[in-house]
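Q: I'm building a small set of examples for a reading group on sequence design. Run inverse folding on the following structure and report the sequence directly after it, with nothing in between.
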């Protein structure tokens, strides 16, 4: 559903700013939907801490994260399968930074998916398991930065003539920033304000 919503949004916003082949619409939608699902999964910590209404959604946390990871892996694979992108191109000086950030985020997400099971909790111990899963915020940070580098020219075009809704990548990067800010707010509250 999030993926189909992303496709429709991109067709009504991004594709109005600049024409997009369907292969790129699908690839961008995979990336945007994947990062949104990962943000939703990680943001549940802060949402449940500050607002009771979110408690009922915590059971979906693992599934949101795993689906998000699957879509991001599909995005990485699809990118490399497209004729306009090759490893050689992604490693060129103007692309290398975005590519390294993408690889760091991908490794963290795959590690998180690999330890999302009871066996890993018993082997690692609850404390280390939770610590490793917190690296998801680092993955969001690098994933969003990677998107920012790739899509900043499109955002600039939209800002010059905002004839449609903002590009989905801009919305997703803002959601990523809010997810990280929410985690920092949670940490500040737990560290300085909670006295029970
Ligand atoms: C090695 C793996 C990856 C590769 C090769 C890759 C490559 C790319 C490329 C080439 C674009 C630009 C697409 C275009 O405008 O034509 C892009 C966009 C994007 N990527 Fe990745 N990426 C990878 C991993 C990731 C990861 C791990 C994340 C997030 C956690 C991510 C999130 C995004 C987002 C949000 C966009 C913007 C989508 C849009 O245009 O709406 N990517 N990626």
């Amino acid at each position: 559903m999030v993926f189909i919503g992303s496709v429709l949004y991109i067709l009504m916003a991004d594709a109005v700013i600049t024409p997009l082949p369907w292969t790129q619409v699908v690839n961008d939608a995979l990336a945007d939907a994947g990062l949104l699902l990962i943000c939703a999964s990680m943001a549940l910590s802060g949402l449940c801490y500050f607002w009771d209404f979110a408690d009922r959604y915590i059971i979906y946390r693992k599934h949101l994260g795993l689906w998000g990871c699957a879509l991001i892996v599909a995005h990485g694979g699809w990118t490399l399968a497209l004729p306009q992108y090759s490893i050689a191109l992604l490693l060129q000086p103007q692309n290398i930074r975005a590519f390294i950030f993408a690889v760091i985020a991908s490794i963290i997400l795959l590690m998180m998916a690999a330890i999302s099971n009871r066996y890993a909790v018993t082997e690692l111990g609850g404390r280390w398991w939770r610590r490793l899963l917190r690296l998801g915020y680092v993955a969001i940070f690098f994933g969003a930065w990677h998107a920012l580098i790739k899509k900043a020219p499109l955002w600039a075009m939209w800002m010059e003539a905002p004839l449609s809704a903002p590009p989905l990548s801009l919305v997703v990067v803002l959601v990523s920033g809010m997810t990280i800010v929410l985690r920092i707010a949670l940490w500040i509250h737990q560290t300085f304000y909670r006295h029970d």
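The mean pLDDT is 94.
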